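B., you asked whether I could sanity-check this one before it goes into the benchmark set. Here's the sequence:
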Amino acid sequence: MVNAITAMINAPISEDLLKGLALLILILTQRRKLDSLTDFLIYACAVGIGFELVENILYQWSTFDQDNQVAGWVDEFNNRTLASAGSHAFYSVWLGLAGWILFQSHSRTIKV
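And here's what the prediction gave me:
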């Protein structure tokens, strides 16, 4: 029970910190191309989709260690890839909004 609760708390925090760091690096390297909220949201969705792709590949790959590989793979595919498709993109949108707000407030203080 403790392991399940720890995983439910640690996983989202570590995943969103990693996605936030990736988004921050992307924003800092592409800052000249980002001039609207839509740009920030699209980049955030791209980071979320990329993270979800890598995560799903790793989970799918781990099913090959099971006794019944095909059933494990299909089960993992149904639960992760189909049932939660796009969830990381949806959650990452909030990181994009936060980044846009941060950069908008930062650019206003510099111009004054």
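One thing to flag: The mean pLDDT is 87. Otherwise nothing jumped out at me.
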